[in-house]
Design brief:
- The protein has a domain of 204 residues: Vaccinia Virus protein VP39 (Rossmann fold), CATH 3.40.50.150.
- The chain is α/β, with parallel strands linked by helices.
- It has a 7-stranded mixed beta sheet with strand order 3-2-1-4-5-7-6, with helices on both faces.
- It contains 11 helices and 7 strands.
Length: 292
C-alpha cells in the first residue's frame, strides 16, 4: 500500500465534525452536483422501497430523495456524528406524530467502506461526493453490491484526477509532499464496478470551475467543507512563509480576467446489481443427483 496516498480516516472524521455547523453555507458546489444527480433520476423508471445515502453529510441529498420518494425508508450513513446532528430535523414532541419529509430516515454513524447494514436490504444506493474519501474503492463497491438487492441501483458522483489541478500545480514547486488528495480516473471506476459484479455501468464527466479573488479564499472554502488534504503523506508541520509565498505566486500565474480558477472534475456514474438467477434443474438432473 502507498501510504503517501492513504487517507487518515480519523482526521477525515474530525475534519467533518469541525465543519458540520457551517458546512451548508460553504457547500454550494456539493448542492449543485447533488441537484444534477437528482435530475438524472427523471430518466430512470424506478421507485425504491429502501434508500442508502452513503456519506450523507448534513442531509441535503436524502431530504430531496424523501420528497421524490415519499414512502421510501432512507438509511443515512456518515462517518461524522455532528453531520447527523445538523441533518436531523428539530421537532417538538407533538410534531413527531405528524407525517413529514425525513421522518422515514434512520441516521447511522459508519464508514461506507464497511457498511453497518445487512445483505440485500437496499434498493437504491446513493452517494454524492463521498467516494473520494475511501481508501479502497474496490472494497467499497463490493460493500455497496452486498447491501443492494437484486436489480438494485447504485448512483454516485465523485471527483476525478483534474480536481484542484491549479492547487496541485502551485504546491508542486515548493516541496515533494502530497498537498492535494489523489482522485481516481473515470475509466478505472467503471472497470471496478464491472469487476465487483455491477452491470451496464454508465459513466460521464464534466469540469466545473469556480473562481476566487485570492488564493486564501480557495483554502478557506476547502476548510469550511472539511475537504482539505488528509493523506498520510501530507506535510506534518506548517508550510513555511517563503514556501507559502512561492505557492501563492505560482497560483497567481493562473489568474484570468482578475479571477483565480479552481477546477473540479466531476465524475457521475450509475450501475445496476443484476437479479440473481435461480438454478433450475430438470427432473432428469434431479433424479441423477438423488433429489426429489
Amino acid at each position: 500500500m502507498n501510504y503517501d496516498h492513504t487517507l487518515d480516516k480519523r482526521q477525515i472524521r474530525l475534519a467533518f465534525e469541525r465543519a458540520a455547523a457551517n458546512y451548508d453555507q460553504a457547500a454550494v458546489l456539493q448542492r449543485e452536483i447533488c441537484d444534477r444527480m437528482l435530475s438524472r433520476l427523471d430518466y430512470i423508471k424506478f421507485v425504491p422501497a429502501t434508500i442508502l445515502d452513503a456519506g450523507s453529510g448534513t442531509g441535503y441529498g436524502h431530504r430531496k430523495l424523501t420528497v421524490r420518494y415519499p414512502v421510501s425508508q432512507v438509511f443515512a450513513v456518515d462517518i461524522a456524528l455532528k453531520m447527523h446532528l445538523q441533518a436531523r430535523p428539530s421537532v417538538t414532541w407533538w410534531q413527531q406524530w405528524l407525517p413529514m419529509p425525513g421522518k422515514r430516515t434512520s441516521y447511522v454513524c459508519g464508514d461506507i467502506e464497511q457498511l453497518p447494514l445487512g445483505d440485500g436490504c437496499i434498493d437504491l444506493a446513493w452517494s454524492n461526493l463521498a467516494l473520494q474519501w475511501c481508501n479502497d474503492l474496490e472494497h467499497t463497491f463490493a460493500e455497496i453490491h452486498r447491501v443492494l438487492r437484486g436489480e438494485g441501483l447504485f448512483m454516485f458522483s465523485t471527483f476525478g484526477p483534474d480536481t484542484l489541478k491549479e492547487l496541485r500545480h502551485a504546491f508542486a514547486s515548493i516541496d515533494e509532499y502530497q498537498h492535494v488528495s489523489r482522485f481516481t480516473d473515470m475509466h478505472d471506476i467503471g472497470d471496478l464496478l464491472v469487476h465487483n459484479g455491477f452491470s451496464t455501468p454508465v459513466m460521464d464527466m464534466e469540469h466545473i470551475t469556480l473562481t476566487y479573488d485570492e488564493v486564501v479564499d480557495v483554502m478557506r472554502d476547502l476548510k469550511a467543507i472539511g475537504a482539505h488534504n488528509m493523506t498520510q503523506g501530507r506535510r506534518s508541520g506548517l508550510t513555511g512563509k517563503n514556501a507559502w509565498q512561492k505557492a501563492i505566486h505560482q497560483y497567481e500565474s493562473l489568474r484570468k480576467e482578475g479571477k483565480l480558477p479552481a477546477t473540479y472534475e466531476v465524475v457521475y456514474g450509475h450501475a445496476w446489481k443484476p437479479k440473481q438467477r435461480e438454478s433450475v434443474l430438470t427432473p432428469e438432473t434431479r433424479r441423477k443427483l438423488g433429489l426429489r
